[in-house]
Design brief:
Elements (H helix, E strand, L loop, with lengths): L2 E2 L10 H12 L11 H21 L6 E4 L2 H10 L2 H7 L3 E5 L4 H11 L4 E5 L9 H7 L4 E5 L13 H7 L6 E5 L18 E5 L10 E5 L29 H36 L5 E2 L10 E5 L5 H8 L3 E2 L15 H5 L4 H5 L1 E5 L9 H9 L3
Length: 376
């Protein structure tokens, strides 16, 4: 059976998280909104505990955690939810980057259709956004700056701390899509200048279908978001609907485990990476993205004169890998991320992403090399 190396698309569920999710599906199945019995009370307590677990990881407060269905919804709520405030105050300018996930770029495009102006900062050739370029894009009417934490295709971490410094004296709200970095690069997201943080459970060994938006207050003022849909008033009126208690519990536990064991997990990923780089060396790969800024669980590489689709087929019985974002893989188009980095068409066409986690078993890299060499 092939070894799964597509953890940037979705991670396996951590066994302890799985056990807790199953318990809340099968035994503690109360509705957190039910006020009249113990089943509901226990469900509400479990949800509040999960808020605490998530908030602790980013040094936020319990009531600053809004549960959603995942980072895509969180991104939409963060971006589209600020539109009314922007229209009311006349601040209709947004700064973002060319390498954002489609879950950020498409809401931004929707706001452009409503009269907002969006400045997309290009990345360096190493795949990271220069904080100086962000500063130079700021205007008096800039409402929002949205820059991802870690790129989903290359694994390159963005200089969020430096961007926070550039925004120190500017009122723009800062949104960080942290789907790929939450629980992995922990310290960065604890910066209090970040107003909005998008989180996705299935990137951190929790179930699919659950995420969160952390909305930090500025002193006593909440981020002026408006809901995208209505009915029920849950989550401070920003995200109505019955809370998926079992999924929320799983996300909360995953966050707590990341806090306790994340350093050990990352060491395991670093060791795996060293074996991968050594094992793939006979293929003479070209690594895409600044390797000094890449998190230890990802490699994006191109193989000379080989098409990624052919390589993935050749490897399908050995390792499961990808050539881009899972959200756009149904109809493959050249990566907008690698294109923005200035890579040539042949290198983009040959790009493959390997991504793993602390639970990934060893790979027979000799067999990987042999399978690829048969394509020549």
């Amino acid at each position: 059976m092939a070894v799964y190396l597509d953890c940037n698309a979705t991670t396996p569920i951590e066994p302890r998280v799985q056990a807790e999710v199953v318990r809340y599906l099968a035994e503690e199945y109360g509705n957190a909104g039910s006020r009249t019995h113990e089943f509901g009370a226990r469900a509400k307590q479990a949800v509040q505990r999960a808020r605490d677990q998530i908030a602790a990881l980013v040094r936020a407060e319990r009531d600053e955690v809004i549960f959603t269905s995942g980072a895509t919804e969180s991104n939409n709520l963060a971006i589209l939810g600020l539109a009314a405030h922007g229209e009311k105050t006349g601040r209709r300018h947004i700064v973002s980057s060319m390498i954002e996930h489609k879950a950020v770029l498409e809401p931004l495009a929707a706001l452009q259709g409503r009269g907002f102006e969006v400045s997309l900062v290009p990345p360096t050739s190493g795949g990271w956004i220069d904080p100086d370029a962000v500063r130079e894009s700021l205007r008096a009417d800039t409402l929002l700056v949205s820059v991802m934490h870690v790129n989903n295709e290359t694994g390159v971490s963005q200089p969020i701390a430096d961007i926070c410094s550039e925004l120190r004296d500017h009122p723009a709200y800062l949104h960080v899509d942290a789907a790929q970095g939450f629980g992995k690069d922990i310290a960065t997201l604890q910066n209090g200048r970040i107003d909005l943080i998008s989180i996705s459970g299935h990137k951190l060994y929790a179930p699919k279908g659950v995420g969160a938006l952390v909305c930090r207050r500025r002193e006593f003022d909440r981020v002026p978001l408006t809901p995208l849909f209505f009915g029920g008033g849950q989550e401070r009126g920003l995200r109505p609907g019955t809370l998926p208690v079992a999924l929320i519990v799983g996300l909360g536990l995953a966050a707590e485990l990341a806090s306790q064991e994340g350093a050990k997990w990352m060491r395991a990923c670093q060791e795996f990476r060293a074996r991968a780089v050594a094992g793939l060396a006979p293929l003479h790969p070209e690594f895409n993205g600044d390797q000094e800024r890449t998190l230890p669980h990802v490699i994006n590489l191109s193989l000379p004169d080989l098409d990624s689709e052919a390589v993935m087929v050749a490897l399908k019985d050995v390792v499961a890998v990808s050539n881009g974002s899972a959200c756009t893989s149904a109809s493959y188009q050249p990566s907008h991320v690698l294109k923005a980095m200035g890579l040539d068409d042949a290198r983009i066409k040959g790009a493959i992403r390997f991504s793993w986690c602390h639970m990934t078993p060893d790979v027979d890299w000799h067999e990987v090399v042999k399978s690829v060499e048969r394509l020549h």
